[in-house]
Amino acid sequence: MKPQDLLTDAYAKSKKNQPGKIATESTELLGVVNRVVRTFFQIGVRVNPYFFGDTEDVAYVSPGWARPSAAETIYRIETAAEVEVVVVPFEDRSAESGLPAVYRLGQVFRSAGNTNDPTSGTLTFFYSKRPTDVAALTSDIDSMFPDAYRELAVLEIAAYLALKDGRAEEVARLVAERDRWLRMFLAFLEHETVNERRRFGHLQPFNTGSLMPIESLLTGGTEVQIG
Q: Hey, CA dihedral for 81, 71, 194, 149, is it positive or negative?
């Protein structure tokens, strides 16, 4: 899947779209494609953080372990011996004094300073990743974006073009169609693997009480409840 393919399909949503006229493809629309893909990764994380999961081994560099640059949401940290390292608040660094613990400050995870806490070595971070931006219209979009739901990106881009061109009626139609695909995407993320066995509760969606409703990131908003 390449940005140029998405733009071609988005142009086809309206006879009024003129390729290269409403917006410059290699700059503005390339940026729109990157933003759109990132938006749907962010939405996906709120529902199923494991689906976009990845790991990174981070070595200690004083004063701690740097947050992985590709991490959208970190949900577990382990030592080299696969022992979980919990994250405690900066204000209460002894909150889990019986477990290996770190706290966050300035995008660095630092030893909480208790007896069992790590002070050196490598920690493995498990996280939902941020998609890798593409630098050209002919580059491949991050492979974790599911091709089966490419229509989501196409419709979001088409809505952007219609909104910029002042076609309010088209925006409403495109948003409604995008939302149908969004519901299918969210349903897929909810049930993509159902045979997992766990001793403890499933990781919950993160948008409860969110200060930034994820719905606000979409062109024209959405009536779909996410998470």
A: negative
Rounded to two decimals, the pTM is: 0.86
Residue 227, amino acid: G
d(CA 225, CA 131) in angstroms, rounded, equals: 23
Answer whether residue 208 shows pLDDT above 50: no
207 confidence band (pLDDT: 50, 70, 90): very low
- At residue 209, the pLDDT reads 46
The sign of the CA dihedral 5, 10, 15, 21 is negative
Average pLDDT, the chain: 91
Q: What percent of the chain has pLDDT over 90?
A: 80
Q: Are 33 and 134 in contact (CB under 8 A)?
A: yes
What residues does each domain of the chain span? 3-48+144-189+210-217, 53-128
Residue 201 has a pLDDT of 67
Residue with tokens 């971070």: 125
